[in-house]
Amino acid sequence: MRKCDKLAEAKANGFVRYLTGRPCNKGHVCERLVSDRSCVECNRLKAQHKRDSMTVVEKYEHGLKYRHLKTNWLLTDKARISRQQTSQKYYTNNQEKLAIYRKEYNLKTNNFHSKQWKQLHPEARSAWTAKRRAAKLQRTPLWLTLTHHKQIDRFYWEAAEVSKLVGEVYHVDHIVPLQGKTVSGLHVPWNLQILPAKENLSKGNNHG
Ligand SMILES: [Zn+2]
Predict the structure, then answer these.
(1) What is the domain range of residue 166?
(2) Separation of 37 CA from ligand 1 center, angstroms?
(3) Does the CA dihedral 183-185-190-193 come out positive or negative?
(4) How does pLDDT run across 59-109, given as a tens digit for each residue?
(5) Burial class for 169, CB neighbours closer than 10 Å (0-12, 13-18, 19+)
(6) 122 and 199 share a domain?
(7) Which residues are within 5 Å of ligand 1 (an ion), measured at CB?
(8) What is the DSSP letter of 39?
(9) Contact between 171 and 122 (Cβ < 8 Å)
(10) CB 60 within 8 A of CB 66
(11) How many domains would you assign to the chain?
(12) Model's pTM, two decimal places?
């Protein structure tokens, strides 16, 4: 049977390939493509050669290999912006879903930076805020021991507990204010007291 008969037969059957049994120019005895009568093995070798002669950047741009290389030198501005837009779009479309995931994750990992943790531990939050404020004003002595810090935290915990019991907000107050008009107190256990918020707020920084 002649080559053309095989080709005609394959075409008639709607096949993509046909086999003549005769070697190609390079000596491959294998299938040919119906579309352009090219040798399948030759095509494979040509493609392989092309891939091998490409640089890493060219391969990346063709999406062949090295897709995992996300180093900046490979990322074009276009790719970077496209990535940003995709994730931005995903975020806006799935905000509620992501919020739930985040909440679950924060609770699971006990993430003390999270909103959920701060809601569950208001006393820790106010202790932290006070610590920050005192640190900013440089009113926390460096010689305080761990026990001192624990005592300070205890004040904030107690204020929260008392607030819950009494049903009125209690604050931890600095007996000598951190920012007094004439004297400034320290953020130390013996300069702390628990006061109702009303009283504390009316007191202001009028000490000394
Ligand atoms: Zn061939």
Answers:
(1) 115-203
(2) 11
(3) positive
(4) 767 766 555 555 555 567 787 788 888 889 999 999 999 989 988 888 888
(5) middle
(6) yes
(7) 24, 26, 28, 39, 41-42
(8) B
(9) no
(10) yes
(11) 2
(12) 0.42
